[in-house]
Specification:
The complex is a heterodimer of chains A (357) and B (316). In chain A, 55% of the residues are buried. Chain A is an alpha/beta fold. Chain A has helices at residues 7-21, 45-49, 61-73, 85-88, 92-99, 102-105, 135-139, 152-164, 212-226, 244-254, 269-281, 303-309, 313-323, 327-343; strands at residues 3-6, 25-28, 54-55, 77-82, 115-120, 145-147, 169-174, 181-184, 197-200, 205-209, 231-235, 238-240, 257-264, 290-294. In chain A, helix 3 (61-73) packs parallel to helix 5 (92-99) and helix 10 (244-254) crosses helix 11 (269-281). In chain B, helix 8 links the parallel strand 7 and strand 8. Chain B has a single domain (4-301), classed as Thiamin diphosphate (ThDP)-binding fold, Pyr/PP domains (Rossmann fold, 3-Layer(aba) Sandwich), CATH 3.40.50. By secondary structure, chain B is of the alpha/beta class. In chain B, helix 1 crosses helix 11 (281-301). Chain B has a six-stranded parallel β-sheet, sandwiched between helices.
Chain lengths: 357, 316
């Protein structure tokens, strides 16, 4: 039976339930057993499973990833957690040269079942080195799987699948999603890796989104509905391997596509989705596709700057209205957006939030 | 009971075997059939042989780009290594790895990689798993002195010490990182063993061209590790006779002197060990050459892998 859980509680529950049945799973990361339990995502597990399975680690992201890989070669199933994606960049050698390739380059004899949980920061002035997303970067590497849940149910389901997978899986969780609510099944229901989800069916336009941008897309669709525009939203859920079929089927139906990606535009996931659509469904398109992504600039610190940096539901709606030939409505929404950007800090996920995080 | 005499002979034979295998690779490399980089261990055989002789076959081993000697000394299949270098489907990595990626899990050889320092923490991770699983095997990690300049070296020492892991770090100091001599990379007074000691790890250094010394130092280290005293760091001085990568000598290109080369050639571990044994060397040699010939034939006659994009999957 589903009940309402917060996103962070869903992560905790998946981890707890899997650890209870699989003794080869262990958790490792800076602050993993800390009193705050990594934003609540691991609360209580240190007490329940003890220091041999829930462990802190030296501030050595690179070597510790290698240690996790080595242990995985002998049948362990480590889950590493980093409180920001940005810290994990120190471990790219181990991730790309070893974790991603060990199975292939040693003739398929060994496997690296490794989950790497990375938290994407944003807002409250976290700035250039605490707010990167980088999922496109990880997805570029053969051998890695990259998942990005947007709902509590998928936070649980994708973590279950990631733990059960025999490959290294990069699990990216957006900090702004941790406190969101949703139905979550009590049992271990996996969300399949590599399968997108149609969040909302529609006929006029397809919005492909991922992670936090799914929330923005849903808001945009609710406004657009009032203008008689029927939006189909696809939550990719997995970036690698990408579910091409779901994207192409939808675009062939609607003939229009907007890709909303919480990442930089250039050589990003949004470009990849667009390339697939152009290669395989070009003649289904009724109008040029649009990408809503971050400008190719560093993620800002001051809320005044970040108000202009991050695209919102309004940006998505404006793009949709323009695409569907409703410039008057688009213009009035743009005016609202400009006003909002000038007046209110948009650097927190909701008003109850008072920082820091 | 192994007598000193039989041990000396075994150490000699194993070094000679590796030497002859690699000389055969060098001799045939020009045929353009071994189409991958080869980093020959010629000159450095004593470290691999002395260390592996002191360990058990069930112990784990992780190595670097110059891995032939480690793989062979640990007992890895010669035929599968040769087939791998020939890019054949019968190779130890099914033709997906090449000379720099050698594996034979049946003898504890868990892989070698050419990213300097990159395999160190993986080896520490193997040891960590054995500790978590309460198994008794130890892990041998071979690396060059260049690896000690990588940050991951210190990180690996730290974690091995922190968790008191059953790891033997074996640093082969051959004085060069490709063409870069040690003195442009590390201060001349640098004591790498002291770096290990500062991390709380026992350390010792020795003559890497004296196989019996390597064996004796390693035996003592392994006994300490098996007794639960935690990791040990060993550094052995040695010298590669040939170029960094490839079959040739390269004393003429200017990064090291002929004098230095001849000095080390006089310290050749195999020549020196030959003085300590009393055996029919021709018989030893010819039995090794027969085995080598069989391995080359196996490699040459084996089929190439076929490229099928579906089977050539990126995922496990």
């Amino acid at each position: 039976m589903p009940r309402q859980l917060k996103f962070y509680e869903a992560i905790q529950e998946a981890t707890d339930q899997k650890m209870a049945i699989d003794p080869s799973i262990y958790l490792m990361g800076l602050g993993v057993p800390d009193p705050k339990g990594i934003f609540g995502t691991l609360s209580g597990l240190s007490e329940k499973y003890g220091p041999d399975r829930v462990m802190d680690m030296p501030t050595s992201e690179n070597a510790m990833t290698g240690v996790a890989i080595g242990s995985a070669l002998l049948g362990m199933r480590p889950i590493m957690t980093h409180q920001r994606v940005d810290f994990f960049l120190l471990a790219l050698d181990q991730l790309i040269n070893n974790a991603a390739k060990w199975h292939y380059m040693f003739g398929s004899q060994m496997k690296v079942p490794l989950v790497i949980r990375l938290i994407i920061g944003r807002g409250w002035g976290q700035g250039p080195q605490h707010s990167q997303s980088l999922h496109s970067f990880f997805a570029h590497i053969p051998g890695l799987k990259v998942v990005m849940p947007s709902t509590p149910q998928d936070a649980k389901g994708l973590l279950i699948s990631a733990i059960e997978d025999d490959n290294p899986v990069v699990y990216l969780e957006h900090r702004w999603l941790h406190n969101t609510f949703g139905d979550v099944t009590e049992d271990l229901t996996p969300t399949p890796i590599g399968k997108a989800k149609i969040v909302r069916a529609g006929s006029d336009i397809t919005i492909v989104a991922v992670s936090h941008m799914v929330i923005e897309a849903i808001r945009a669709a609710q406004w657009l509905e009032k203008d008689g525009i029927s939006v189909e939203i696809i939550d990719l859920r997995t970036i690698a391997p990408l579910d091409k079929e779901t994207i192409l089927t939808s675009v062939k139906k609607t003939g229009r596509i907007i890709i909303a990606d919480p990442d930089w535009k250039t050589v990003g996931m949004s470009a990849e989705v667009l390339a697939i659509v152009v290669e395989e469904a070009l003649f289904s398109l009724k109008s040029p596709p649009v990408r809503i992504a971050y400008p190719d600039r560093h993620t800002p610190t001051s809320w005044v700057l970040s108000n202009h940096f991050y695209p919102t539901a309004k940006d998505i709606a404006i793009a949709a209205l323009t695409m569907l030939g409703k410039p008057t409505k688009a213009n009035s929404l743009l005016e609202e957006l400009i006003k909002q950007q000038a007046q209110t800090p948009l650097d927190v996920p909701d008003k109850e939030f008072t920082g820091p995080f | 009971m192994v007598t000193q005499e039989s041990l000396s002979l075994e150490l000699y034979r194993e070094m000679l075997r590796i030497r002859l295998i690699e000389e055969s690779i060098a001799a045939r490399y020009h045929e353009q059939k071994m189409r991958c980089p080869v980093h020959l261990s010629i000159g450095q055989e004593a470290v691999a042989v002395g260390v592996c002789k002191a360990a058990l076959q069930t112990d784990y081993l992780i190595s670097n780009h110059r891995a032939h000697a480690h793989y062979l000394a640990k007992g890895g299949s010669l035929k599968q290594m040769m087939a791998e270098i020939y890019g054949k489907s019968t190779g130890c990595c099914l033709g997906r790895g090449g000379s720099m990626h050698l594996v034979d899990r049946s003898v504890g050889m868990y892989g070698s990689t050419p990213i300097v320092g990159g395999s160190l923490p993986v080896g520490v991770g193997l040891a960590f798993a054995t500790k978590l699983k309460k198994e008794s095997d130890i892990t041998l990690i071979f690396f060059g002195e260049g690896s000690t300049e990588e940050g991951v070296f210190g990180e690996s020492l730290n974690f091995a010490a922190l968790k008191n892991l059953p790891v033997l770090f074996i640093c082969e100091n051959n004085l060069y990182s490709v063409y870069s001599p040690l003195n442009v990379r590390q201060p001349t007074e640098r004591d790498r063993a002291a770096i290990a000691t500062a991390h709380g790890i026992q350390a010792e250094t020795g003559n890497g061209n004296d196989v019996e010394e390597v064996y004796n130092i390693t035996s003592k280290a392994i006994t300490s590790i098996r007794n639960g005293n935690g990791p040990v760091f060993l550094e052995f001085d040695t010298y590669r006779h040939r170029e960094h990568c490839g079959p040739n000598f390269d004393n003429d290109i200017g990064y090291r002197t002929e004098e230095e080369f001849f000095l080390w050639e006089k310290k050749c571990p195999i020549k020196n060990q030959e003085l300590k044994i009393n055996a029919d060397l021709d018989t030893i040699r010819s039995s090794i050459l027969t085995e080598i010939e069989e391995a080359f034939t196996f490699a040459e006659e084996s089929p190439y892998p076929t490229f099928d994009i579906e089977k050539e999957g990126a995922y496990a």
